[in-house]
Design a protein that fits this description.
Order of helices and strands: HHEHEHEHEHEHEHEEEEHEHHHHH
Number of strands: 11
CATH class of the largest domain: Alpha Beta
Strand order of the largest sheet: 2-5-10-1-11
Number of helices: 14
Number of domains: 2
CATH architecture of the largest domain: 3-Layer(aba) Sandwich
Shape: elongated
Strand content: 5-15%
Largest sheet: 5 strands, parallel
Distance between the termini: 63 Å
CATH superfamily of the largest domain: P-loop containing nucleotide triphosphate hydrolases
CATH topology of the largest domain: Rossmann fold
Length: about 325
């Protein structure tokens, strides 16, 4: 039996075999049709290499991978919710992370694909003018179609793509339910292509120049993507949505965890020199959730780096400047 703990949290890249999916989470035949190659990361991510994963995070990631379920991360701002996926993608060699930053205006179609119908219509009109009014063929539809991050993540591939859906709690109230159908089926349709009834159409993917041949306007995954959704806890989600996700609340910062983070990013010497500052921050963060870990990283860098103020009083002022509560000042 394959080792179920595919992701270890050590940040050491390895192409581990992913165990077979549960019978109720199998999708397209991986031996049939064209398989999308996983693109290499654009550059080495410092966050991916230094992320400090806890045992609970490792368990949650592996459960999501084995069960082919999205991973819903909640927790305070700056707790590393959007950084975890970089660590997983680096270690398991899942290629460039696809990212969808959700707003109140985001729709499911935005994430699946974008079709510039107006641009195509204008180009067709221009062609007619240049042809003295004679009937000319419309511009090719593939020049005005591009898959979104979710649509790209669902392309057939031998290994899962990594997809971050960031701040899902900022979405319209219906978006989580809209996502359920796609997550359950592992597929979606592009009606503009389905109506054409022609052969494969090469459509560009999200964030790159690669294209994929879509047949009959339908995309169906062969490996369910590794999906991470983040939420700052600004709203509740439907029970039907929650039961289809692996859920994890990111841990609140402790002295030990914060020290490990400082060592990973700034080195053991800087962490040791900032021991009192780390303990003070842990106390503040425990008493009030209006603090983020990256504030501490900024403060430690300012008082231990090359640009540190020379005097103790100046350093103390810089620390207070950088460790303000994450709240808007109201006069």
């Amino acid at each position: 039996m394959a080792d179920w703990q595919i992701y270890t949290g050590t940040a050491e890249p390895h192409r581990a075999a992913i165990p077979a999916a549960p019978p109720w989470r199998t999708f397209g035949d991986p031996k049939a049709g064209h398989q999308m190659e996983l693109p290499a990361p654009e550059s080495e991510s410092e966050t991916a290499a230094t992320f400090q994963a806890t045992g609970e995070m490792v368990d949650a990631v592996n459960a999501a991978l084995v069960l082919r379920r999205p991973l819903l991360l909640t927790g305070r701002p700056g707790s590393g919710k959007s950084s975890l996926i970089d660590s997983v993608a680096r270690e398991l060699e899942l290629g460039r992370v696809l990212r969808w930053h959700v707003t109140s205006a985001s729709t499911l179609t935005d994430a699946l694909y974008r079709y510039d119908a107006i641009g195509r219509l204008q180009a067709h009109g221009l062609r007619r003018e240049q042809s003295d009014g004679r009937v000319v063929d419309a511009p090719e539809i593939e020049d005005y179609l591009r898959l979104g991050p979710l649509g790209t993540a669902l392309l057939p591939s031998l290994r899962p793509r990594a997809l971050l859906i960031d701040e899902i709690d900022k979405s319209d109230i219906d978006l989580p339910n809209d996502l359920l159908n796609v997550f359950e089926r592992g597929e979606f349709d592009v009606p503009e292509l389905a109506r054409m009834g022609t052969g494969p159409v090469d459509v560009r993917v999200d964030g790159g120049d690669e294209s994929y041949p879509i047949e009959n306007g339908r995309v169906r995954c062969t490996e369910f993507p590794f999906v991470v959704l983040t939420s700052n806890g600004e709203r509740d989600f439907p029970a039907a949505f929650l039961r289809r996700c692996i859920r994890l609340r990111m841990p609140d910062p402790t002295v030990t965890l914060l020290t490990d983070i400082m060592i990973a990013h700034l080195g053991a010497v800087a962490a040791a020199e900032s021991d009192a500052l780390i303990k003070d921050f842990a106390t503040r963060a425990k008493a009030d959730r209006a603090y983020a870990t990256d504030q501490l990283m900024n403060a430690v860098f300012m008082v231990t780096g090359d640009g540190t103020p020379p005097g103790e009083e100046e350093r103390a002022r810089m620390v207070e400047l950088l460790l303000k509560k994450l709240a808007t000042d109201v006069v």
